[in-house]
Amino acid sequence: MSITFKEVEHIYSENTPFSYHALKGVNLNIKTGSMTALIGHTGSGKSTLIQHINALLLPTSGEIQIEDIMITATNKPETLKPLRKKAGLVFQFPEYQLFEETILKDIIFGPKNFGISEDDARNIAKETLNLVGLNESYLEKSPFDLSGGQKRRVAIAGILAMNPDILILDEPTAGLDPQGAKEMLNLFKRINKTGKTVIIVSHDMNQVLEYCDDVIVMRNGRVERHETVDQIFKETEYLSSLSIDLPTITSFILQLNEQGFDIDSSIKNVNQLIKEIGGQL
Fold first, then answer.
1. Which residues contact 191 (CB under 8 A, 6 or more apart)?
2. What is the distance in angstroms between the CA of the first residue and the CA of the last residue of the chain?
3. Is the pTM of this model over 0.85?
């Protein structure tokens, strides 16, 4: 389902000495079924923006349209419950959303809250835990006895158990080793290919280049750019001006071009790059 922001503002602690203007006139449309990266420096508004998509935060002004649900400053909590099933959010720090005694209880909490039977919820918990790379032996463990990477996997399993149409992930590979990060990103891509919309907040441009379709660039509470991955990584000077690290392959292509090659900087596949180099030798 598509996500549309119209003139969205968010001010924390409005009308107090601690007031902070986090979102400023955000207009944005995220396409149904896309895998979109949200990038920008700390404090640019990324986390504030994604918390509006499942109404953990309400806009100070403006509106967000998600299918038939309109989110505004005047929404009542009970009107937004259906949205919590449609849009699942995994926080940057997974311990913030783990609260039950056991991993099983944590994962089945959401499905049971939406009317799924205990037995069906248990089966869902087993399936989703397996999806994120943990076996059934973890079900009776306390989530607070896990490593940071394992907590992240359990938090993701808890969201997947809800079968949301929109999956929102704030730095989803933090705390994972390179192989674990690759496995999780491949899982998100498989989920995306089923038609679900996936939004990833990331500082890793290699991941953005390899896995995402579109990129939203935020700066100072505003959406500054919304481009395809291919387009945004052609604009190397713009990204450098934001002090955003380029993907490794893009940096390598720029170095080659400084040596006299003429290679498209949006290339993301090593085999394609080798072919281009060979054609210019």
1. 160, 167, 198
2. 47
3. yes
Q: Please give the backbone phi and psi of residue 98, each rounded to the nearest 5 degrees, phi first.
A: -105, 125
Identify the H or E element spanning 28. strand 20-30
Cα–Cα distance, 130 to 199 (Å, whole number): 22
Burial of residue 177, with CB atoms counted within 10 A of its CB: 0-12 exposed, 13-18 middle, 19 or more buried: exposed
Alpha-carbon dihedral angle through residues 123, 125, 131, 135, given to the nearest 10 degrees: -90
Half-sphere exposure of 197 (CA within 13 A, CB side): 21
215 beta partners: 37, 227
Q: How far apart are CA 158 and CA 151, in angstroms?
A: 11
d(CA 3, CA 67): 7
Sign of the dihedral through C-alpha 182, 185, 191, 195: negative
Residue 20 is inside which H or E element, if any? strand 20-30
Task: Please give the structure tokens belonging to residue 26.
Answer: 């955000």
How many whole angstroms separate alpha carbon 273 and alpha carbon 260?
A: 15
pLDDT digits (tens, 9 = 90+) for 27-75: 999 999 999 999 998 899 999 999 999 999 999 999 999 988 999 999 8
3-state secondary structure 177-241: CHHHHHHHHHHHHHHHHCCCEEEEECCCHHHHHHHCCEEEEEECCEEEEEEEHHHHCCCHHHHHH
225 to each of 1, 25, 26, 35, 39, how far by Cα in Å?
A: 21, 14, 11, 16, 10
The model's pLDDT over 86-104, given as tens digits with 9 standing for 90+, comes to 999 988 877 778 888 899 9
Q: Taking every pair of C-alpha atoms in the chain, what is the biggest distance, in angstroms?
A: 65
Rounded Cα distance between 109 and 125, Å, is 10
